[in-house]
Amino acid sequence: MAQIFYDKAAVQVRDLASNEGEVLMASDCSINFSNSISPLYSVGRKGPLGQLPSGPRIGDISFNFLTTITGSYFAQQGNIINGLASGIKNSTDSYASGVRITCAGVSGIGFLNSYSFNVTSNSVSSSSASFTLFGSGTFLPVSGRLAANATTQAGNVGTEGARASIVTGIGHGRYTQMPPIMNTVIYDDSVTPSSQERQTGTIYSADYSISFNHNPLYKIGQEFPTCTYYTTASESINVTEDIFDSGLTYTGIERSYVIDVKGLDPGLASSGSTGTFSGMKVKVVNAKQISSSVSVGLDDIIRSQKTLTAAY
Amino acid sequence: MLGRITREAEKLTINGSGIQGIQSLSASYSSAAQPTTALGIGGAIDYYPQGPQQANLEVGTILTQLLPPNAGYSRDLMQNFTGTFPFSGVVDYGAKQFYFTEGYLETYSVKCGIGQIPETSTNSVIYGNFGTGAKFDSWEQTSSTSPSLNITSYGSMEINLDTFSTNRVSSFDVNIATPRVPLYALGIDQPTGVIAGTPIEVNVNFELEVDDYEIKSMRLSPDETVFKNTVITLKKNDSHDILLRYDFDNMLLTSESFNGGVDSNVKMNFNLRSFILREK
To answer: Is the minimum CB–CB distance between B195 and chain A shorter than 8 Å?
Structure first.
């Protein structure tokens, strides 16, 4: 059957080593598989010798999904992508094993290339992730054929059947606050220190992103890499406020932040009382502000943006 | 026998003042819940809130009761909310009530025609709370101002436009749009502030029974652009006591229309528009 409706095309991510997995609430998904065929020419011949491979076959998969907070993955509260990102950037071992990503019967072992999410006032948080599929040994980067997922979201992969109810586990700007030290604070230096007016910015939205670099090791006599190593990662947060910080320092000020993306508390939804619901944790270590900008358009206030970056 | 609630059991109070002469009143909110559709979704559909939670209040009144004269303020209570200040209130219906807080006027209109009492209509957006429940325990009515009976009518109003000495105005309406810009921050469901937007758009529409009115050229702009000062004065019925005055300078003529028919006199409609910048 070639015609598969979206309700049978769940995006599943599973770590083969720990068997932890999750079906994500993806709004779209795209899989690409390509080879590096290029024409080869030679002197004395008008036409090409042929179209020949000049590199390994490689794939990628990317999807957008709701920022679900469904439990602890790799000892990190949130969803499996957030847990995966946290695990990679804090790893002490460079060897990367990748995770299996499956959508409508097509799957591959992917290495997290980038992960991002946004939190905006009064809006549900959405995330996006992209993986590079290198393949391994004799395993193709992308395999399988289109097939409908027969099962529903709950309980079909790993241990996610025991996760919290999904409706109360979606990150939302209504319930999320950035750590107070993230707010820009400025002082009016045109007056004496004793009467300085302190201004604290209000955060209207925050966009988080992290990208990873992986290094696949190829050897002669084999198309796909023997192993893949994680090398570096760069992380950034773009914060929208209403205060412009013109005091950007030359060397930057180093701070660490713990972002706690929260959704509706299950206790609040069921009984009206706040429970102990924990949000999705993202720890940004030794971040420095690298830019300040300000913009204004018609029918709006002047909004400022600052970018905080960290490297791993 | 099923009970019903009729007009005598309905009441609107805004900032402690009972609104008189109400012809229509509607208040509404809509849920911001969106379904959780996703790839591979199965089982039940759940919901999550998306977008700000706001309510709307629409009030239509006839201008029969007005506030006492007070310099700097309109005697029509609702017109005073075209500025920066919000209002709160309560709607009584039978033995029940619902409340609202942080209401901001978005449109204010007044209209009148031959044989009618001038009517106002307002549309407001509620950024605070709306409904019933524990959130409203702290709601209090502020000191009230009692309006007095001052009936206006079409027979005791003045319209100052230079074309009306020979052409009869059969109806007019004034529409004032006051934009609002709510600012929502992370972590809370109510705006941290509401900016009174600028400029304020004013549209005045007239309907004339024509004697010698000349329709302008479609290509009047920009060479022959027509600007008019418009003053509409509402007086107490059979009196020279001025109750309300709508006074707009340099209004741009933006449209004219001609309407003829077998069973009516020729009528002409035209629109004047201006924009008012809020004071700093």
So the answer is: yes
